[in-house]
Write a structure and sequence with these properties.
Four copies of one chain form a homotetramer. With 376 residues, chain A is α/β, with parallel strands linked by helices. The first copy, chain A, contains eleven helices and 17 strands. Helix content of chain A is 33%, strand content 26%.
Amino acid sequence: MMQRLNIGLIGSGFMGRCHVHALRNAAPTFDLPLAPSLELLADVDAATAAKAAKALGFRRSTGDWRELVVDPAVDLVEITTPNVLHKPIALAAIAAGKPVYCEKPLAPSAADAKEMADAAEAAGVKTQVGFNYLKNPLVVLAREIVASGEIGEVIRFRGIHDEDYMSDPLTPWSWRLDPAGGHGAVADIGSHITSIARHVVGPIEAVCGQVRTIIPRRPAAPGSRETRPVEVDDQAQAIVRFANGADGTIEASWVAAGRKLTLTFEVTGTKGTVFLDFERMNELQLFTRDQPRGRTGFKTILTGPEHPFYASICPAAGHHIGFNDMKTIEVRGLIVGLAGGPPPSPDFREAWEIQRVVDAIVRSSREGRWVKISEI
Amino acid sequence: MMQRLNIGLIGSGFMGRCHVHALRNAAPTFDLPLAPSLELLADVDAATAAKAAKALGFRRSTGDWRELVVDPAVDLVEITTPNVLHKPIALAAIAAGKPVYCEKPLAPSAADAKEMADAAEAAGVKTQVGFNYLKNPLVVLAREIVASGEIGEVIRFRGIHDEDYMSDPLTPWSWRLDPAGGHGAVADIGSHITSIARHVVGPIEAVCGQVRTIIPRRPAAPGSRETRPVEVDDQAQAIVRFANGADGTIEASWVAAGRKLTLTFEVTGTKGTVFLDFERMNELQLFTRDQPRGRTGFKTILTGPEHPFYASICPAAGHHIGFNDMKTIEVRGLIVGLAGGPPPSPDFREAWEIQRVVDAIVRSSREGRWVKISEI
Amino acid sequence: MMQRLNIGLIGSGFMGRCHVHALRNAAPTFDLPLAPSLELLADVDAATAAKAAKALGFRRSTGDWRELVVDPAVDLVEITTPNVLHKPIALAAIAAGKPVYCEKPLAPSAADAKEMADAAEAAGVKTQVGFNYLKNPLVVLAREIVASGEIGEVIRFRGIHDEDYMSDPLTPWSWRLDPAGGHGAVADIGSHITSIARHVVGPIEAVCGQVRTIIPRRPAAPGSRETRPVEVDDQAQAIVRFANGADGTIEASWVAAGRKLTLTFEVTGTKGTVFLDFERMNELQLFTRDQPRGRTGFKTILTGPEHPFYASICPAAGHHIGFNDMKTIEVRGLIVGLAGGPPPSPDFREAWEIQRVVDAIVRSSREGRWVKISEI
Amino acid sequence: MMQRLNIGLIGSGFMGRCHVHALRNAAPTFDLPLAPSLELLADVDAATAAKAAKALGFRRSTGDWRELVVDPAVDLVEITTPNVLHKPIALAAIAAGKPVYCEKPLAPSAADAKEMADAAEAAGVKTQVGFNYLKNPLVVLAREIVASGEIGEVIRFRGIHDEDYMSDPLTPWSWRLDPAGGHGAVADIGSHITSIARHVVGPIEAVCGQVRTIIPRRPAAPGSRETRPVEVDDQAQAIVRFANGADGTIEASWVAAGRKLTLTFEVTGTKGTVFLDFERMNELQLFTRDQPRGRTGFKTILTGPEHPFYASICPAAGHHIGFNDMKTIEVRGLIVGLAGGPPPSPDFREAWEIQRVVDAIVRSSREGRWVKISEI
């Protein structure tokens, strides 16, 4: 009988459900030593929590996350609330000595993220942040290809995360636009492409960016005639410099009409190039210079059982993993880490590093100058 | 508390695990009225079954499927064994009055499939066959587009299912090559594209085909020097005529080097065209004639929450469903059907119709002539 | 000073202009020994011919092709008339001892084509037929790859030529629909894909096809209310067998909504696959089995200076040749041949072989049976 | 009889030949009023010029361009020399009152370009600069789509020009690397994407860029062991601001392994997006928000006869124009302009504006700050 890992989840929106799906599947899919068990769900009030707990299969529920983080039956605290709540909850959970699995971006600011990372490390508590796109087997493969020198030394990175979920000016104001929760597109999805940049190429040293609010006011609520000003960015663009000497660009937009998950990156090396677009997340493009004359070209590698994690999900190449599978892989790493394996990743420390880049882009834009990450 | 649906599963290979994954997720993902419960697992012998039961989370296990099909605690019999066993197991389950969820192809021959469909209908037992690719939301969308007349009247269908899992001549003989289990590629994957042809366009009336064994002998076992003759086809090609007057082609190969899930179909209508390739299973190509001058072209539709089932899996377009999600959607239909909703589909009767086409292609090839489906 | 090659061109429509473009460019582009000189243009009447001659830069014109073929100043007769006229003109030119460069399809029937090929050979006259798609450097590359064994032995060919220039039912009746000129889509463009099948894989032995008229009546003239019956096919599909043992399919349609130049072919070998789609005519897809584990995939080869003819047109890979460049390459082969180099190709003999396949598909469809090419 | 336009061409390398091809074809293809006539060719010395004149079909030749620009028989001076010579030649031609058609980039620096533009305007001499990619019918279409408001107001531009012709460190030093001729990749191809940015979106106001030399030394000559330092950039990246308020990025690299003509741009508007990649130069991607629910997506528009210039080159959509066709279209505009039609474009004034952006990127990189174009 597998040992149980009792989950306390805060938040039951889309990401909450996504966590539950991953918790349900990670252990059997990957034959893990701990079986997550849905112990306690917290939400904005008792009634909401009770209803969601029933739907999602949690044993108990509460309208107060403060109860959850100190509940003795809870082994792991998971945070899928609006960003503004990540910090107080995480600090409380850490104070209670519980490991924390928090959604991204970790905090409204790098300073907040640092406080959280420091606290976790001081308390010896394990943490993980939900940068799930890092778990795409082909991102892992890209990192492997870069690290192995297959494409030579990295000379350039180009990273984009474009979606269009905020492109309709009638999409109303929501917590994503609350400046108390942090920046806009550059934080919400710019953090994803930044996480990939760091994961695949390495630390970023300096940035020069421009961020912009495209839609200055939005309906205060769905269908409302009243409007509310938007104080966060809708799109961001930056040139960046990596510590290893490579140059790069990072862009993000949530008003990129027609783009649904244009999370793409290209790493150019002295001997080759690797490219991935999440709208075709099962295809990696690889070019290397060592090809026979007249037979050179980019190769389209479909995710297959030789790539990390895939074989457990699907035994045949080209049969596709999907969005939820990446989350299941993420939970796998977390459970392995909690069970004594390699530490979960990315942790709060790494999430702070990501947030520093995001903050640096915004500061750079405000001050019209290059900003070193060390300034943040 | 949700009502339980006790599962008796026979077979714990890849497809068995795939069923378990879908059973685990269908009810919570789609908020269904019945909760599948892993009651009893059968496999080739007691030890194998016991081990798999533990790994997959079944309550009990047995080395004899005959026990399983009559076990009073079992509400639903699921068959993921080699093809040759589908019929005896299904008939026994039907005789015991249990609904049956069987993998494809349903049976070694159309005659067998008919016997199974007749038995199920006579017994009033619900059935479903695992043609999971039909559950891709974009296949459902394609069917909707065709049925609605958006592309006019169908004049042509082109269907292909190419993979390369048997293309290496050193891949050893296995049950897939056992003629007692039916035909080769034309049955194993040709049945998939045939299921789509019927689902999207309608009944097929006649076929003229050619099937061929490319690799005449294979190692008797992995790494063995001894070889064994291959008696089934490796690739098949047919021209077909639909009852509604459309013409078509159907092709299948499991020796198509480099093709991993080239399951593609194109439906040409008098006013437009729709195309899907499962290697990009989240992209439907749609052309309609009613476009402004100088602005005409195929549109790439990414699966999104407006398409069937997707919103329950993932709320944002372009974020991808994967292979396992299609199976979860399949199980959703089954549970809805067992709970009194629309009957599960495709059922044994439809699987027989599919098998008739497969058998007709093979007979046509052997006899060098057009064969009407009504001959089979 | 380059030696002149005096051209006599019959027909000044699109294809006539296309020939003139190629004649203008072939010698300087490829540094050829003969300079085509626009001597004499024939068209339906003297006025039309005179006007076109002026526009296209011909020295003289005539309303009677019979004059042209015997004109002593004409070194080469080029035929770009409606199909029905190819045979009488070519036979007259051959009788006058002139080499002939004729558009495809060569003749309304294989019998006609044979008569033309026999006459040319008897007279020792060089001929070339305008199957210009064979001149795409990537088709030449595909042939090279197949011939060299890079993809092993050919086991399957899939060929398609789909366009939609006749898909609008209001497109009026025209000479393309005149049964006196031969068959419909299967001849007009089916001959192209057949030419590629033979060029890349080899002779075809037998076919079983179905051809169909989709739009039974069309306006008798542009905008006319009067309609005229269509007696030729709009789409065709066939399974074929090659002499070397490979199986294949050949399809053609001029009513394939949205398809503009979907001239595609895929050659599957025992060790690899090669694929080309003319809508992306500068990209060849190549898969070979000899790739490192986890790094396998189709390679996209862009036309470049290592491929035949390209360097003379454009020195940098990926910069694209276009439709007219293929015709220029075609004329290059013709001039080289007339100047004593390797014989122009494909010649009338090869065009007859292509036409036999086309005729066999139609006969097969009419008689509902496999037809051997040797029957035609 | 068409009036002649006597051409004096300086330079007979690839670009010289490319001009000759376009001169040969523009008038007949587009039925223009002036027929370019190859009058006089200049090259580095008399022998080289004489040989090239014979091969290319020029009447006369000279080893001294100074003779050419004042030759009374020359109606138009064309410059395809290394960049460093553009200015002295152009100024001399202008002084002689001749129109000038010069290759890009126009000059080593914006200051030089300004001097040239001023001189031409003062002399009332017409000019054109060879930014041939602007002549792709789909670039014209993109501009039309943006200008018409079909995608709303422009909020973002992303432009890339990546190639890999200098990515091999053994590629020797050449005039492209001579700092006297101007900057490196940012000028050689960065000017192309800048020309498109201005053409499609409008004037750029400020930039912040980083340029880098990747390969610091190269063989002094082909195969030489001696090396020579590289003083110009190999890659460049910039964030930019347009005068109309849109943000953007511009990138260029000639060491982007595997990229052959990755000249891509994406224009995001408030209501849609348009995208083009020159490696698929006959496909424009267009997204607009006004699509029916469940049927939204990017549309792939193939170049066709409804688009500018295409019908004269090829009457059927999807049949592809190539690299040389763009140059022919460029020459068409020039001839129309010289014959009294709309002025040729882009002219020296526009080429200066492009050069200012290029220079600003380099200065921005050197000074580590945003640079306004008005500073240049």
